[in-house]
UniProtKB/TrEMBL annotation:
Highest taxon of source: Eukaryota
GO CC field: transcription factor TFIIE complex
GO terms under biological process: transcription initiation at RNA polymerase II promoter
Residues in the signal sequence: none
Protein name (record): Transcription initiation factor IIE subunit alpha N-terminal domain-containing protein
Length: 256
């Protein structure tokens, strides 16, 4: 098994394959999807604020990009209502403490946390590859239609009409003739159906080459039964984070 056979490597390859353009589309954010997915493979849960500070991305741009990645099942989002812990000064009685707690509770706010859901991402990538390739394959395998014209009367025939135009009394003559003028038909350039099929075949070959690295990684992940990274529940991650925190100012108390 190669050292690159990991789910994190799968995400990085997929990011460059599917998210190297604007994220979301129709925005001036080329490469943003790659940046975010690469960063998210290095952390577990991360808050929107921490993510914005780490990537130096404007909040509104970051929000749109994360929504796009979430819609593609690459990223999972969880919202929590939080507030800072109540700090009670020495000399406060119970009534003052309860009043302060109530006041602080009313100041709670929502915080979005993000994580890569490797289980869903794997399934989503499989579906995306199969759907994209299936559409092109269907177009590539479509029956091409040739078009013929009569130079005299201008009547148009297609390949579906050839059986009615062949002279079965003279099988050695493959010439197609107009059923009205008995003039040899001229074949013109293939119509849009033919061109679409040819273009689809070219795109299919290119797509297979581009998908090969991702398909190879995903196949190895299954063959070698590589464990899927699990970030765990957000509440458990938060508890372990708070337990390791010594600075009171960054401690947060869940109210959801």
């Amino acid at each position: 098994m190669s050292r690159s056979t990991t789910y994190k490597h799968m995400i990085r390859v997929a990011a460059r394959l599917f998210y190297s353009g604007p994220c979301p589309p129709e925005s001036q954010t080329r490469g943003l999807g790659v940046l975010l997915l690469d960063y998210l493979t290095t952390v577990q849960w991360v808050s929107f604020k921490d993510l914005a500070e780490a990537t130096k991305i404007h909040p509104s741009v970051l929000t749109q990009a994360l929504r796009f990645l979430e819609a593609g099942h690459m990223v999972r989002r969880l919202e929590r209502r939080e507030r800072r812990p109540v700090k009670v000064s020495v000399g406060y009685d119970e009534e003052d403490k309860e009043a302060k707690e109530e006041k602080e509770r009313s100041r709670s706010f929502s915080v979005d946390y993000y994580v890569i859901d490797y289980y869903r991402a794997f399934d989503a990538l499989q579906v995306r590859m199969a759907t994209s390739r299936g559409t092109l394959k269907k177009q590539a395998e479509s029956t091409t239609r040739e078009v013929y014209d009569c130079p005299d009367c201008g009547k148009m025939y297609t390949s579906e009409d050839t059986l009615t135009l062949v002279d079965f009394d003279n099988p050695s003559d493959p010439t197609l003739r107009c059923e009205f003028c008995d003039v040899e038909l001229t074949q013109r350039r293939a119509d849009s159906t033919t061109m679409t099929a040819e273009a689809a075949r070219r795109l299919l070959r290119v797509m297979d080459l581009e998908l090969a690295p991702l398909k190879r990684v995903m196949t190895d992940l299954q063959v070698y039964a590589v464990p899927v990274p699990d970030a765990g529940e957000l509440c458990d991650w938060m508890k372990s984070r708070l337990a390791a925190t010594t600075t009171p100012d960054i401690e947060w108390e869940d109210v959801a």
